[in-house]
Amino acid sequence: MPLSLRRWTLCLALHLGLAVSLSAQSPDSGIAFTFDLGYQAHFESPDGLNFVVGRYNETRNFLTSEMEPFDQFSGLTGSLGAYLAWLYFDLGFNRRAQERSAEGVLNGQATVRGVRTTNYGVYLSAGVALASNGVAAPFKMMAVTAGMRSEFSATRFSTRTGPADQVGSLDWEEVENDLRFYVGPFVKFTLGPLVVEPYYLFDVDFSDLPSVGLLSLNEEINPSTFQRDPDPTYGGGGFGLRIAAILYLGSG
User: Fold this and answer.
1) What's 139's DSSP letter?
2) What does the CA dihedral 63, 64, 66, 72 come to, rounded to 10 degrees?
3) What is the mean predicted confidence (pLDDT) over 38-49?
């Protein structure tokens, strides 16, 4: 879901103001450092990407299996965090990916076209510990933390095509990269050695600029129709879930 830059700026300013206010009021002075590593699933259905996929399906009457829409990107995630009294900050990374493919009989041979989308993201979070047992030690910390996250993501579009019995061994061809920016709320449940973190990310809308990556992907897989299509924008955003093991690096 796109979010205008002006609304994002206001949201971030309000969030930072709340964090500064709570920091000034906090009577605690403890600090604890953490590292977590785990798995992330992001339920995102990018309108522009799925438009390109849909165009591929509707212009191939030889398909026996159509390419399904992109709807869930998953992969590795991790972060370095710090609790300063009531406040929480972290710097994290993630790699989310999904592959889709279509199969049909072309010139008497079973042929497959695959498309892969991979997001490489770096994010910064700031939040407030709503509840905690105050114990920053292995397997003992219990906390509920809520806040806002900003994520800068490089989105890579790749494709490959070939005979059905050979396409799995072929290299992916990278067509173009996109730069994306997300912002949204999260709630982090720290349960001893485990972190469970639902979140929502808005895809920030920079004046409806077309996606360079999707323009190239559309041209690559839809060479007969791409010139008549509107310039696609990515149009992503959605709910996600991080599940990770947490390591406590020390406290003071």
Assistant:
1) T
2) -150
3) 94
